[in-house]
């Protein structure tokens, strides 16, 4: 049966990096003889320009009917005026909500050739390998009312609301992930101040009863921000609410050398997922071939693993990225500590990954071991 991936290139460098990821996916599907088709749709600023809305109905229905969604990035100065009522970001939040993608996984791990690019000392970064599980469809991002009030609009209100069930499902997902990894879960909250955090803690403690092999600890968000710098190697799985997860994942992303490397997966209970780089649309370098496509390519690997159940194919992409970096190839954002380094543009890096995938598949005796 043909499977479908909907591609939402979006704005800025989004179209360049998703084009690279799609080429990589096509290579893998060809090698393994998988029948997968790609459908492209509009989101963000590109959709505002074409249709006046950041999330056209046809984008939502196409995504909902597909097996997985690959997204680039949204936003840019063109749509950034405070006075604008429609914003590209509404497209991103809207598609997450419309598809019910409540668990956002952001893996952070060290790449040897990038160790010296980290703002932290090498020995602090070497063993970093953790995943942030960010709640994605609740909390401050979606609380009602979010509005200016009063006759002169002198008061603003945003609401941090969570139902128990919303907390339970994301916490359960994080425990399941910890069971597949090093069995360590850090739940991050602000329970010394927020009621929603106190409920979050209760849910985590109750869920822990069903996962006796997982060691759980609770950490306040401010302390977590500090611990990510002091000792990032201590973490395995971190689970937290939407806004805390947004902030901590940007902090975590630079630990390993470049934001340009980090993929993410947004999941729900069935296999449909949305995959996107953690980096934004980087309008300052858009269209110049400078963008690093690796976060998008690694997001495509997560897509294979979580939505299409293609573990081996996902690992092939990840291995190829590893080898390409080890060989000294990099994009402008990466500073490598290898002796011979070769700087590539977006297309060059994509091509290098594809070449490497083909070579590994060839060495291992043709891809399909199935
Ligand atoms: C992210 C981004 C988005 C978010 C923005 C673009 C709305 O920062 O995916 O982390 O805050 O979720
Ligand atoms: Mg963010």
Q: Can you give keywords for this protein?
A:
globular, Rossmann fold, binds 3-isopropylmalic acid, binds magnesium ion, ten-stranded mixed sheet, 370 residues, 41% helix
Helix content: 40-55%
CATH superfamily of the largest domain: Isopropylmalate Dehydrogenase
Bound molecules: 3-isopropylmalic acid, magnesium ion
β-strand number: 14
- Give the strand content: 15-25%
| Gross morphology | globular
Count of individual helical segments: 12
- Uncertain segments are none
Summarize the helix and strand pattern as letters.
EHEHHEHEHEEEHEHEHEHEEHHEEH
**Multimerization state:** single chain
Secondary-structure-based class equals alpha/beta
Q: CATH architecture of the largest domain, please?
A: 3-Layer(aba) Sandwich
How big is the Rg? 20 Å
Mean of all residue-level pLDDT scores: 94
